[in-house]
Write a structure and sequence with these properties.
The chain has 700 residues and is of the alpha+beta class. It contains 13 helices and 37 strands. The strands form 8 sheets. It has an 8-stranded antiparallel sheet. Strands 22-23-24-25-26-27-28-29 form an 8-stranded antiparallel β-barrel.
Length: 700
């Protein structure tokens, strides 16, 4: 347990219990939260390194504290002024920035974006002209999802939003504007462009001047430059040493902040846009941000899910609070190193913000912790009777499944995270399998039809599946407990696909091939070994006529189904899944370069693995081409090497596990035969290599 702040305003709170003699201290809530956090840190020493949080009401900071370590080798601990990246929680600030301009009459929510950003365009017709400002903020624009190049890096890379705006000219929509709402980072990247175009100021400057300063968020900063050691909470490696600073170059999703600062933002929203005696936002603007924007979407087949998107909010009906009758808006934020969660309960005038670091296993912990703290606080002050306990899972009575029931749910379904297969067994149960590493692996057997209409396994009663038909598709819906487990939520998991046409010979020839990334040289995911540099193309057994992109990117393992029927040079994204599982879709484009087929996917480019040239022995040079793309070489035998003149380089073993990496110059004493080296530099620069072959695979 480390630095803490409590009850900075000692005045009487309107939420003090009747008959109390002072402000409520939330002592029981704080004690429970501390015990929970310390237990989590003890159980996850290599995953959770630091936690910071703040509980506020509309008048005061009730409690702020920091826990854990930011460098175990020197026993350095965080304080409440240590910066954590709040990642996509920053989208709330982007929405506030937009609503400031709406209040000033400079922007209309339902006006097309092209009115304000004339350079905005896409490649497929005129539909993009129907994208409104509101659609950027409520995830219904139809933009692909996330533009991957330079989104998260180990050095600051400026100009991400401008680069993205240019790249959109060759992209297309994945659904019609306003048709459905599916989580989309790209929309908020365009909010940066909107703010800059309307105000004449960079997005970061506008936010600092118009939001951070007046709200009193004096410790908050964008990652425009390197922070001093000890000022921010880095991820820690297995030995407890700080990893490189992570830069989120999409600023609308990448503010670095403290719990007190995020608490002040929440207080402004609890006060309906006011900071002291000044009005930052109108009360109408705050209310519109907190209105469910998904209710009028034409494609919304399942409504009992968490993502009732507001403007900037992931949901305006947080499940754990809604289950006890409390309205709450929430936003989650995830980068590679960081996980954050913000809940604002406007009617209760109470809010909680939680940030933590390290690994991806912590992505759900911040939300569960925030939910727990706010529920305990509401119970402690008497706003709710008690924090509801999680009920014992009950699969419900099983009933015989008819042939029609089984035929309706059986089949292959696809999502942005991979295909699912539901197979009927001889005993008339259903088995769910996932497509992993090129084959179907059973993940849940014994699903039986229940009286409720769901299919549930006796040994996993907390997870239930059913089929929902919408817009001519069969959607697979999954229902499972959320948060603390006292409520359940249902998501559209995936949907089926119509039969495809036979693959052309050119597409068949590409199946099983691999390509290597040639851009994104400062990617945090590549630099920290979170993902290999490979892109693959495969088939899904049983799903004829489609191909699958096999890639790990942004720290996620994706198997995305693509439709290649349009022609030999492009396979199209083909899923329409609201909420989350239709996130991050991309077309696959084949580019002809010097007689080779290269791949463009998600804004990233890949060269063929099969044609990587061997690295010559002794001293030589490599020249970077005019586009500044990385140059790959293969070491045919064990060697040592030195490299000068590069901006970044990566060395992989034959299985593409990262061995070494560096910026500028580098030297590696023992490189296994069959290893791969990729070198990056400015366009038309010449890199110098010295390679000494080892005898018998050992250093000479």
């Amino acid at each position: 347990m480390n630095d803490r702040e409590t009850n900075l305003d000692i005045g009487q709170s309107e939420h003090s219990p009747a008959g109390s003699h002072g402000p409520l201290t939330y002592a029981a809530t704080i004690a429970d939260a501390r015990a929970t956090i310390l237990k989590e840190l003890a159980l996850s020493k290599t995953n959770t390194s630091a936690v910071t949080l703040a509980l506020v009401d509309d008048r005061r900071l009730l409690w702020a504290e920091a826990f854990g370590s930011i460098d175990r080798t020197s026993s350095q601990t965080p304080t409440t002024e240590t910066l954590f990246c709040v990642a996509s929680c920053s989208k709330v600030i982007a929405a506030v920035a937009t609503m400031i301009l709406v209040d000033r009459g400079l922007v209309e929510l339902d006006a097309p974006l092209v009115r304000y950003v004339p350079a905005f365009r896409l490649a497929d017709g005129e539909a993009y002209r129907d994208i409104t400002v509101r659609m950027l903020l409520d995830h219904s624009s139809g933009l692909p999802g996330t533009f991957f190049p330079n989104v998260l890096t180990i050095v600051p890379v400026h100009g991400y939003s401008a680069h993205f705006l240019d790249a959109l000219a060759s992209e297309r929509l994945k659904h019609a504007p306003g048709e459905l709402a599916v989580y989309c980072n790209d929309g908020f990247t365009l909010i940066e462009c909107l703010i800059a175009a309307v105000t004449g100021r960079p997005y970061t400057a506008f936010v600092e001047q118009e939001i951070l300063t007046p709200v009193g968020m004096n410790h908050s900063h964008f990652g425009l430059e390197r922070f001093d050691t000890g000022r921010f909470a880095p991820a820690l490696d297995g030995a407890g040493r700080p990893e490189p600073q992570e830069y989120v170059n999409v600023y609308a999703s990448g503010l670095f902040s403290t719990p007190s600062d995020m608490g002040r933002l929440a207080m402004m929203l609890l006060n309906r846009g006011r900071v002291g005696d000044q009005s930052l936002l109108s009360s109408d603007a705050v209310a519109e941000m907190g209105r469910d924007q998904t209710v009028d979407r034409p494609l919304n087949p399942i409504t009992d899910h968490y993502a009732h998107f507001g403007l900037g909010w992931d949901g305006v009906r947080q499940g754990g609070l809604a289950a006890v009758g409390v309205t709450a808006w929430f936003k989650a934020g995830d980068a590679d190193h960081y996980h954050s969660y913000l809940i604002v309960a406007p009617d209760e005038r109470l809010a909680i913000t939680v940030s933590l670091t390290n690994g991806s296993t912590m992505a759900s912990v911040a939300g569960v912790l925030a939910e727990r703290i706010l529920l305990n606080a509401l119970a402690e002050r008497g706003s709710i009777a008690t924090v509801a306990a999680a009920p014992a899972p009950d699969p419900g009575p099983a009933i015989p499944a008819s042939d029609a029931d089984l035929a309706a749910i059986a089949g292959i379904y696809a999502s942005s995270y991979g295909p699912r297969r539901l197979e009927v067994q001889a005993d008339r149960t259903v088995t769910l399998s996932n497509f992993v590493d090129g084959r179907w692996l059973p993940s849940l057997a014994g699903l039986r039809r229940r009286q409720s209409g769901y299919f549930v396994a006796d040994h996993r009663p907390e997870v239930a599946y059913r089929q929902v038909v919408a817009a001519g598709r069969r959607y697979l819906a999954v229902r499972r407990p959320g948060g603390l487990g006292h409520y359940a939520m249902e998501l559209p998991d995936s949907h089926d696909l119509p039969p495809g046409e036979p693959l052309s010979p050119r597409w068949q020839a590409r199946v099983g091939r691999h390509w290597l990334i040639v851009d994104d040289p400062f990617s945090a995911f590549l630099a920290l070994g979170r993902q290999p540099p490979l892109f693959g193309l495969g088939l899904i057994p049983g799903l004829e006529g489609y191909v699958a992109a096999l890639v790990i990117t942004a720290g996620l393992r994706l198997v995305q189904v693509l439709d290649p029927r349009e022609g030999h040079a492009c396979a199209r994204m083909c899923l329409k899944i609201p909420v989350d599982n239709g996130w991050g879709l991309n077309d696959l484009v084949i580019e002809e370069r010097d007689g080779e087929e290269w791949v463009n996917w998600g804004g990233l480019r890949y060269r063929p693995l099969a044609t990587v040239p061997p690295l010559e022995w002794s001293q030589g040079t490599v020249t970077i081409g005019h586009e500044g793309l990385g140059e790959w070489r293969r070491l045919p035998a064990a060697a040592s090497l030195t490299l000068t003149g590069s901006s970044a380089w990566y060395l992989y073993d034959p299985e593409f596990t990262l061995l070494e990496r560096g910026l500028k110059a580098g030297a590696v004493g023992a490189v296994p035969g069959g290893s791969y080296l990729v070198m990056h530099g400015r366009p038309r620069t010449t890199l110098t290599l010295t390679v000494n072959q080892h005898t018998s695979g050992k250093p000479s």
